[in-house]
Design goal:
Layout lengths: L9 E5 L17 H15 L7 E5 L11 E4 L5 E4 L6 H16 L18 E5 L8
Parallel strand pairs: 1-2
Antiparallel strand pairs: 1-3, 3-4, 4-5
Helix pairs in contact: 1-2
The structure holds FE2/S2 (inorganic) cluster.
The site of FE2/S2 (inorganic) cluster has 11 residues, from loops.
Length: 135
């Protein structure tokens, strides 16, 4: 049920999120989440500044009505589940820009002034790291 992954800054992307309200898959048969995962890897691989952010996919983050959904996390930091993304490059750029700022933050709190416009309105929950709660 669990698979070991890199223990550093990462974006866990739901690989099974819908493509759209009308269709689970795009014309090529790709789920929205899988297409977003591909976009995240493509954007990450094109920018050396993002090389330290792992992209991990897993089926269903239980945020299905807010497709496409991702979980941004890093050890010892507050993590976030975000959703409502289109499976495209613009979303991948915004998610990774936020993940980079999150990874550089002390405790996972990124000042609102540093949020990329593309993540605003997409936050669903924040999750405290194991052993901590937020103050
Ligand atoms: S299918 Fe993506 S969160 Fe459930």
């Amino acid at each position: 049920m669990l698979r070991t992954v890199h223990d550093g800054p990462q974006v866990v992307v739901c690989s099974t999120c819908r493509h759209s309200a009308e269709a689970r898959e795009d014309a090529a048969g790709g789920r929205g989440g899988a297409v977003l995962a591909d976009a995240l890897r493509r954007v990450r691989d094109a920018d050396p500044a993002l090389a330290g952010i792992a992209i991990e996919d897993m089926p269903c983050l239980f945020a299905c009505t807010r497709y496409c959904a991702v979980h941004i996390r890093a050890p010892g930091k507050i993590g976030y589940v975000l959703g409502g993304f289109a499976p495209d490059t613009a979303a991948a750029v915004a998610i990774l820009a936020y993940a980079a700022a999150h990874g550089e933050s002390a405790d996972g709190v990124v000042p609102y002034s540093q949020w990329p416009a593309g993540v605003k309105g997409h936050f669903i929950v924040r999750v405290p790291p194991e052993g901590y709660v937020a103050t």
